[in-house]
Amino acid sequence: MGLADIIKKGAFVDILRGMSVTGTYFVVDKMTVEYPKEKLQVYPRFRGVQALLTDPATGDTKCVACMLCATICPSGCIDIVGEQTADGRSRPASFKLDLSRCVFCGFCEEVCPEAAIVMTRHYELATFDKDDFYLDKEKLIANQVYVHKEVFAQPTEDTAPAPMEAGTANERGRS
Ligand code: SF4
Ligand code: SF4
């Protein structure tokens, strides 16, 4: 051990240097989020648990049991049985989604022609009971409480897209 090292040890240089780093972090903004007391805002396109939306006009789900979501689902975790109502509507008699197999890809939401199934931003899905991962129609409808308000935003006259001119779609299709 050289003289310089002896002086360094005697003056507690390393300890003081360490204390200065610790002291610095007492005064700077903390980076840690103390979950669950504090929560991060998820990104707008975050995909959490699904919800089935209801139609205020009928009070029933907007789902018409077209099976598109069940068909496109890469995990095969959606199971739907359709039925006809007395007034001629098509709807799911049962709608089951096994969340334990879902990969949250969002294909079900994208493919739905009725915007009936949507991905919410709810991510707190931990449970001790795996039955909680089996979502039936009632649970999926109840999940509407997690739907973010943008989903319900209806286009107004100011924000609605202008109607397409004749031939525009075909021209786009060719390009
Ligand atoms: S998010 Fe993807 S994996 Fe999950 S139910 Fe929808 S289509 Fe299936
Ligand atoms: S794609 Fe939409 S309307 Fe069709 S079965 Fe799925 S949720 Fe229902």
Task: Write the SSE topology.
Elements: H1 3-10, H2 13-27, E1 50-52, H3 68-72, E2 78-84, E3 90-98, H4 107-111, E4 117-119, E5 134-135, H5 137-142, H6 149-152, H7 168-174
Antiparallel strand pairs: 1-4, 2-3, 3-5
Bound molecules: iron/sulfur cluster (SF4) (2 copies).
Structural write-up:
The chain is α+β, with helices and mostly antiparallel strands and 175 residues long. The protein has a domain of 100 residues: Alpha-Beta Plaits, CATH 3.30.70. The chain contains seven helices and five strands; from the N terminus they run ααβαββαββααα. The site of one iron/sulfur cluster has 13 residues, from helix 4.
Number of strands: 5
Q: State the helical fraction.
A: 25-40%
Query: How are the strands ordered across the major sheet?
Result: 2-3-5
Order of helices and strands: HHEHEEHEEHHH
What amount of the residues lies in strands? 5-15%
From the N-terminal CA to the C-terminal CA, the straight-line distance is 77 Å
Query: Structural class of the secondary elements?
Result: alpha+beta
Shape: elongated
| CATH level-3 fold name of one domain | Alpha-Beta Plaits
Instruction: Report the C-alpha radius of gyration, rounded.
Output: 27 Å
Mean pLDDT: 85
- Ions, cofactors, ligands: which are bound? iron/sulfur cluster
Q: Largest sheet, described in full?
A: 3 strands, antiparallel
Oligomerization state: single chain
Q: Provide the CATH architecture of one domain.
A: 2-Layer Sandwich
Under CATH at level 1, the class of one domain stands as Alpha Beta
Are there runs of 5+ residues with pLDDT below 50, and where?
154-175
Question: What's the helix count?
Answer: 7
